[in-house]
Design goal:
By secondary structure, the chain is an alpha+beta fold. It has one helix spanning about 5-25, and strands spanning about 50, 55-60, 65, 70-75, 90-95, 100-110, 115-120, 125-135, 140-150. Strand 8 (about 125-135) and strand 9 (about 140-150) form a beta hairpin. The N and C termini lie far apart (about 45 Å).
């Protein structure tokens, strides 16, 4: 067997061995929606607007797509308007079913007082956005759940 042919065979064996591992990692404990799946098989989309812990969230990007910027708007309650100017808002994205760590994004304050974070989910499935608002020595933490699609 020639050296180049032997190298090709080894490369193909390594690739073939890696594909099942990659597939198992991405599907472990989680079903993914696919473009070909019927509508009834799609995971239920979390509400794109909600209010919790005095914060209001709104996903501008609907549906949320993977590997592109999706906009999440966060509003503080009107009674906390004075604290908006100095507030720092961060969003930490994670997929608890996958245990691949978390992605962190800073939210920018817009002139109207709404904070906007540009989120980039990296894979299809259920995501948890942990929203942390720090202002005037206080911290408000809340979670927002959504599904990302291809």
């Amino acid at each position: 067997m020639s050296e180049s042919r032997r190298s090709l065979v080894i490369l193909l064996c390594v690739l073939a061995a890696g594909v099942p591992w990659i597939t198992a990692c991405s599907a472990q404990g989680h079903q993914h929606a696919t473009a070909a799946a019927p509508a009834a098989a799609q995971p239920e989309q979390a509400e794109t607007s909600t209010q919790q812990d005095g914060l209001q969230y709104h996903l501008v990007s609907e549906p949320v797509k993977i590997l592109v910027e999706n906009e999440l708007q966060i509003s503080l309650p009107s009674e906390q308007e004075a604290g908006r100017k100095d507030a720092v808002v961060t969003v930490k994205l994670s997929m608890p079913e996958m245990d691949h760590g978390e992605l962190s994004f800073s939210a920018e304050r817009e002139p109207d007082g709404v904070f906007t974070a540009k989120l980039i989910p990296t894979m299809v499935g259920r995501w948890v956005a942990q929203i942390v608002v720090e202002k005037e020595g206080q911290t408000i933490t809340s979670q927002f759940v959504f599904d990302a699609q291809p």
